[in-house]
Amino acid sequence: MNTREGKLAPTLAASGRTVVFSADPALVERVLAVTRKQAPAVSDTLPAPGRTVGIISPAPLAQLAMKEAFEALPAANESVLRGAADAHLLPRLAALGKYPAYRMVVKDIPARGLAWTPLEWQPVR
């Protein structure tokens, strides 16, 4: 399938109880490599992975936001907004991209049942 992004080959795969879909077959293969234990899962690289709720990585987030913003604001059609984005958004996204990755961690797992528990942000090392 040809798109603005190039040629896409939507791929669906199953491995055991896992079903994977992506427009990028390379991503599907990466997930399958993790399920086959041929590549590490993110959780394999973290201390106390059972306590990690989520991870935020600002560098790829900034790249994605920049790509999407400039695709939505073509210079030929949106010169004023594109100029404002170039002047104001671009430096902020560049600064965001320099922040380190963090993970949100459950500080104390409840002994039993459901309970409110404090969360803490920790740098990913």
Short summary of the structure?
Helix content is 35%, strand content 23%.
What does this structure look like?
By secondary structure, the protein is α+β, with helices and mostly antiparallel strands. The chain has 3 domains: 39 residues; 38 residues, no CATH class; 40 residues. The strands form 3 sheets. It has a 3-stranded antiparallel beta sheet, with no helix packed on it. It has a two-stranded antiparallel sheet with strand order 1-2. A two-stranded antiparallel ribbon has the order 3-4. Helix 2 runs antiparallel to helix 3. The radius of gyration is 20 Å and the shape is flat. The mean pLDDT is 89.
SSE inventory with pairings:
Elements: E1 2-3, E2 6-7, E3 11-15, E4 18-22, H1 25-35, E5 52-56, H2 58-72, H3 79-96, E6 102-106, E7 119-123
Antiparallel strand pairs: 1-2, 3-4, 5-6, 6-7
Helix pairs in contact: 2-3
Name its key features.
single chain, 125 residues, alpha+beta, three-stranded antiparallel β-sheet, two-stranded antiparallel sheet, 7 strands, 23% strand
